[in-house]
């Protein structure tokens, strides 16, 4: 059982596909985001390897069908959310098609005008499909973020109205902040945040206390983001947010996250005397 007041430490609930507040797209893309080099390498190697395999059946499979197979690989690369990976897959598919599926084989040269046209179409379609897939993922991500934004506002209203239990409120706030910011982890910790944390301000900006005029590279030194929880002007704890800072670009989302922490602090402050009296 949690002790009265703010004596609670937890990790925000993991995202679930049915959770409207969870940034599902961000979580689905998390592996690719952290392995971009590998993703791009596979986007180059796999189409070449598949083209080489299709070369073994060049007499049975028409080149048009092989080209469609390579387009599917481009779609798979673009579905990672990395536009460059999709473009690399499109170029690699065209090169593989030229090397292994058109005469003269194993040379970057095409003699048949129809196959030249097919290779050009493969490149153009691949690039177009890659861009469309990236656009669709961006739209889906934006829709998820807007849903998380609305959920954050509603959660804040519930906390302000006192309709949420204190312990349940803390769990809900951590989970909503996690979905709102597409964070990998959100925990509540007692005491002031450390000096190596970027701090979310009430106006939705990030403050870096140790340095000013930071470049993107130097900002990556900060280990996490903190959302202070204050009572009577003193910081009694903070929500520790682990998330790529390159993704924290929406001030409205940051403002709602700060508002959630502030409303939960007010709710806890109002409920603490009642709970303390009840426990004694």
Quick synopsis:
With 280 residues, this protein is an alpha+beta fold. It has helices spanning 24-28, 30-34, 36-55, 63-78, 83-101, 113-161, 166-181, 216-219, 251-279, and strands at residues 185-190, 197-200, 206-207, 224-231, 234-242. Helix 3 runs antiparallel to helix 4, helix 5 (83-101) runs antiparallel to helix 6 (113-161) and helix 7 (166-181) runs antiparallel to helix 9.
Rg, Cα atoms, Å:
26 Å
* Class computed from helices, strands and strand pairing: alpha+beta
Largest sheet: 5 strands, mixed
- Please indicate the percent range of residues in DSSP E strands (runs of 2 or more): 5-15%
How many strand elements? 5
Assembly context of the chains: single chain
Mean pLDDT: 76
N-to-C span: 15 Å
What pattern of helices and strands is seen along the backbone?
Answer: HHHHHHHEEEHEEH
Number of helices: 9
Secondary structure: helix percent: 55-70%
The spatial strand order of the largest sheet comes to 1-5-4-2-3
Contiguous runs where pLDDT drops below 50 for at least 5 residues: 1-22, 212-222, 273-280
Shape: elongated
């Amino acid at each position: 059982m949690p002790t009265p007041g703010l004596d609670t430490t937890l990790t925000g609930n993991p995202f679930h596909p049915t959770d409207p507040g969870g940034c599902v797209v961000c979580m689905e893309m998390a592996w690719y985001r952290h392995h971009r080099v590998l993703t791009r390498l596979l986007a180059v190697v796999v189409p070449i390897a598949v083209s080489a395999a299709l070369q073994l059946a060049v007499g049975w499979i028409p080149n048009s069908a092989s080209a469609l197979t390579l387009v599917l690989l481009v779609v798979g690369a673009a579905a990672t959310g990395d536009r460059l990976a999709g473009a690399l897959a499109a170029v690699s598919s065209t090169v593989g098609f030229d090397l292994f599926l058109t005469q003269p084989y194993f040379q970057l040269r095409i003699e048949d005008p129809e196959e030249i046209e097919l290779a050009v179409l493969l490149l153009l379609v691949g690039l177009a499909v890659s861009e469309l897939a990236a656009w669709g993922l961006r739209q889906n991500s934006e829709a998820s973020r807007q849903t998380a934004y609305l959920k954050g506002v509603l959660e804040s209203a519930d906390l302000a109205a006192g309709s949420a239990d204190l312990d349940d409120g803390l769990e809900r706030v951590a989970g909503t902040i996690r979905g709102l910011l597409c964070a990998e982890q959100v925990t509540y910790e007692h005491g002031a945040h450390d000096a190596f944390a970027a701090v979310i301000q009430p106006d939705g900006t990030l403050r870096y206390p140790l340095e000013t005029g930071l470049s993107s590279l130097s900002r990556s030194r900060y280990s996490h983001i903190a959302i202070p929880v204050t009572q009577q002007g003193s910081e009694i704890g903070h929500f520790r947010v682990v998330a790529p800072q390159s993704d924290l670009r929406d001030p409205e989302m940051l403002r709602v996250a700060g508002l959630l922490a502030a409303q939960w602090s007010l709710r806890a402050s109002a409920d603490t005397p009642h709970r303390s009296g009840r426990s004694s």
